[in-house]
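Q: Focus on the chain.
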Amino acid sequence: MIPSFGDSGCEVPAETQMLLLETREKSTVQNGLSKPTTENSLYILLLPVLDGPFRASLQGNTVNELEFCIESGDPIVQTSQILAKHKGTFNHVENKKIPAHVDWFGWSTWDAFYHKVDPEGIEKGLKSLSEGGFPPKFLIIDEGWQNKVMEVEADETDSPYHATSVDRLTSIEENDKFKGFRSGKSYANLREFVKFIEEEYGLKLVYACHALIGSWGGVLPTSEEMRKYDPWIKHIVQSPGNVSHVICTTLGPMEKYGIGMIAPSNIYRFYDDLHSYLASCNVDGVKVDVQNVLELLGSCYGGRVALMGRYQEALEESLKQGAATRVSEGFMQMEPTFQTLRVAAVAFNSLLMGEIAVPDWDMFFSDHYTAEFHAAARALGGCPVYVQLRRSH
């Protein structure tokens, strides 16, 4: 979601999620010049919502009409009538528990390591930040701690933005990088490592990242541990307008190999097992990534709304906590013209999402040429403040 502006119906982009209209009295003419008056302006908010298994968005057409676009994501789920009303299906943010990490400075391991994160690198990063006078109080162990297998389409690349493979989860436990690690001390597992860095570096919170569907490519159906959730390979069914930017960068291999999907009837058991294990490892919370892929898997499950609803309900029941939610595209450090657009986008998006959850404006590089700009924006945004380190660190 990014902001757009205009004064006619044809300028309303497709997939508009929120539309604020300003209406004014007709212009008055003074000395031959037309001068609009704002004394009696009226503001109207149009917010497309869900109706049963259908989701809605707004779009303009060439004759300046405003259209509702209604879709389910499942070819067999159709309707000829949609009712719009105040749904009352979620609690406002003031009635939710504010996540503890909002009050602390943090570090995410993502851009420092991508999927190559390991205990030694995490220790070096924590030591670097502490010696620099800014010890983080919460840590996100991002991609790279889980047990996965890769199905490769072409030569692997080190860039996460041009994936050539699909990775599938084989176990809820940590991979071998986080077992038997030695650096002056021996950490037999993730639990011992997390306990050590909390005590050594004064961390108050440690989070771990996992995808909504387990991993980017879901779970591995032939894995002995995953079999109890009865997963299978489901191939992507696309419908117009439902492929986001993030999906587009990885859709090729996903289309070729499909997604290792857990049925909605078993997804709570998977989440509960995963989160219970992480809790036993002293992990305090999770960052749930890759949520948009699920919208491509709605056929045969009543569509994207029905499927996403069941997954989200299971996720929230498993975690039993209030949430922060990303309100932006990721921090693209190599895009020089993207920085101001991105901050403008998250500010506008926070108007809507801030009513539902604590807006998360994402991490940023502490030594980027726009670092001060991003830091000031987050100070105003009332959002969590956490940074990335460059890979050379």
Observations:
- The CA atoms of residues 187 and 225 lie 24 Å apart.
- The chain has three domains: 9-89, 96-144+323-393, 147-186+213-281+290-321.
- Confidence is low (pLDDT under 50) at residues 240-249.
